[in-house]
Structure to design on (424 residues):
C-alpha cells in the first residue's frame, strides 16, 4: 500500500536516520495493548469507504515510525490494535482522497482511543486525452504524471506511459481544483501544462520544445518535478502590483520601482525562512552583476506574527546579507496577507516566491522554493535564475532613448554569458 507522500515522507526519513531503532522500541514499551478506532468522512458527514489509513507512533529520539495501515470499511470506519504507552497519530488519504492526519495523542493500557473524524475529499474527477509531437505524430510510450494542490496519488518511481496513439488517463482528481500534467521526453527533460481545468475531457496536448523544462540529475530524489509543476504558476493577467512601505515607512509602488524600462525581480521572503536566507546572497550577487543593465530587485518581507519588532529584524537581515536592493515590509506572514499585499498573485505556494517581470511589466516566470540541497540542484537552480533574469532583461517596453537607455549589452566582452554566481 502506498500512502500519500505527506504521510510517508517523515516516516521514510526516520527509518533512514535511525534504522533498526524501531524494533528496539518494541521491547522498551510493554504496557499492554489498546485499540485505536475512528471514521473517515466528507465535510457533509458522508462515510468514505476504501480510503487508505495509516497509524504512526513516536519512537526513540522523537522520530516518527509508520506502524501499519489498512483501508476504511463500507461505513468509513477503521480500527487498529497497537502497543500502549506511546504517542500516535492516524493519517487518512492517498490514491482516492485528499490527505488529513489527526493530532498526536497518548495511549494508556486499558483505555481505547476514539479518534476524531478525519475529513477528506474523495477524488471524483478523471481525464482522458492524447499527446502529440510538434509534427503531429502521437507521442507514444512516454512517462507521464500529474499533480494539483491536494492531489499527488501516483508513485513517481513507477509512472504510467502513454499508449501507442499518445493516449493517457488521469484518475483521482478533485473536480474543482486545477491540475498540472507532464510528459517526460528524456530522462530529466519534461513538458509541463499548468493550471488545467479538470472539467475538460478529453484533452489534446502538443509537446513543444520551447516549453521543455530541464531538471537536475537527482530530481527524483527530491520530487523536484512535482514542485516545479505545482508552484511555477502564473499571475492573474500576467501582472502583479503592490504599494508597500520601505523600512523607513515611505510607501512605494511597483510602477515606481520599474521605471524607466526596468526589468524587476520581486522576491517574497522572510527572515525566518531558511530557503529565503539561502536565496538572498545569490540575489544580491545577481543584482550587483545586472543592475547597470536595467535590472531591479525588490524584496517583500513578511515576518512572524509573534515578532514584536519586525522592522528591527529586517534591518539586521539587510545588514547581515549586505542587501543593496530595496527591501519592503509586507506585514505578518500569512497566505491571506500575501494575497492582499501583492495584487494579482494567484496560488501563493510558500516562501520564497520569486517573480520575474519583464520591461513590459508582464510576469514571465514565477517560482516557489529555492533548491540548493545538492550540487546538481544548486547548479540547476542558479542557471534557472540567471536564465530568467537575462530573459526579462531582453524584453522591451518602449524605444530606448538617451535619457532611458535599455543597456542590453548582455554579451559584451566584459560579460561572456557565464555567471560568476553559478560557478561558485
Amino acid at each position: 500500500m502506498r500512502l500519500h507522500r505527506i504521510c510517508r515522507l517523515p516516516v521514510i526519513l526516520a527509518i533512514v536516520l535511525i534504522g533498526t531503532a524501531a524494533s528496539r522500541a518494541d521491547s522498551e514499551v510493554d504496557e499492554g495493548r489498546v485499540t485505536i478506532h475512528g471514521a473517515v468522512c466528507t465535510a457533509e458527514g458522508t462515510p468514505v469507504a476504501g480510503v487508505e489509513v495509516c497509524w504512526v507512533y513516536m519512537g526513540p529520539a522523537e522520530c516518527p515510525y509508520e506502524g501499519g495501515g489498512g483501508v476504511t470499511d463500507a461505513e468509513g470506519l477503521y480500527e487498529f490494535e497497537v502497543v500502549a504507552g506511546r504517542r500516535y497519530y492516524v493519517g487518512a488519504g492517498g490514491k482516492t482522497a485528499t490527505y488529513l492526519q489527526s493530532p498526536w495523542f497518548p495511549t494508556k493500557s486499558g483505555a481505547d482511543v476514539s479518534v476524531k473524524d478525519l475529513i477528506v475529499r474523495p477524488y471524483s474527477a478523471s481525464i482522458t486525452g492524447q499527446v502529440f509531437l510538434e509534427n503531429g505524430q502521437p507521442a507514444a510510450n512516454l512517462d507521464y504524471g500529474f499533480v494539483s494542490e491536494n492531489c499527488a496519488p501516483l508513485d513517481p518511481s513507477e509512472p504510467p506511459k502513454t499508449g501507442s496513439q499518445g493516449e493517457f488517463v488521469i484518475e483521482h482528481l478533485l473536480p474543482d481544483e486545477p491540475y498540472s500534467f507532464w510528459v517526460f521526453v528524456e530522462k530529466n527533460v519534461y513538458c509541463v501544462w499548468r493550471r488545467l481545468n479538470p472539467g475538460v475531457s478529453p484533452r489534446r496536448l502538443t509537446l513543444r520544445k520551447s516549453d521543455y523544462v530541464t531538471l537536475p540529475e537527482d530530481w527524483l530524489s527530491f520530487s523536484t518535478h512535482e514542485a516545479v509543476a505545482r508552484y511555477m504558476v502564473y499571475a492573474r493577467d500576467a501582472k502583479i502590483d503592490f504599494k508597500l512601505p520601505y523600512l523607513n515607512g515611505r510607501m512605494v509602488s511597483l510602477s515606481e520601482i520599474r521605471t524607466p524600462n526596468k526589468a524587476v525581480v520581486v522576491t517574497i521572503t522572510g527572515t525566518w525562512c531558511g530557503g529565503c536566507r539561502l536565496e538572498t546572497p545569490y540575489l544580491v550577487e545577481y543584482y550587483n552583476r545586472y543592475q547597470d543593465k536595467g535590472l531591479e530587485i525588490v524584496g517583500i518581507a513578511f515576518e512572524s506574527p509573534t515578532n514584536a519588532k519586525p522592522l528591527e529584524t529586517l534591518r539586521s537581515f539587510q545588514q547581515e546579507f549586505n542587501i543593496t536592493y530595496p527591501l519592503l515590509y509586507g506585514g505578518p506572514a500569512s497566505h491571506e496577507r500575501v494575497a492582499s499585499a501583492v495584487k494579482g498573485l494567484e496560488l501563493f505556494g510558500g516562501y520564497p516566491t520569486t517573480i520575474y517581470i519583464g520591461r513590459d511589466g508582464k510576469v514571465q516566470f514565477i517560482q516557489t522554493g529555492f533548491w540548493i540541497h545538492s550540487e546538481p540542484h544548486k547548479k540547476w537552480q542558479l542557471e534557472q535564475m540567471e536564465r530568467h533574469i537575462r530573459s526579462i532583461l531582453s524584453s522591451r517596453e518602449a524605444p530606448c532613448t538617451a535619457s532611458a537607455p535599455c543597456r542590453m549589452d548582455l554579451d559584451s566582452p566584459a560579460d561572456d554569458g557565464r555567471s560568476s554566481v553559478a560557478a561558485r
Remarks:
- Confidence is low (pLDDT under 50) at residues 1-29, 398-424.
- The chain has nine helices and 23 strands.
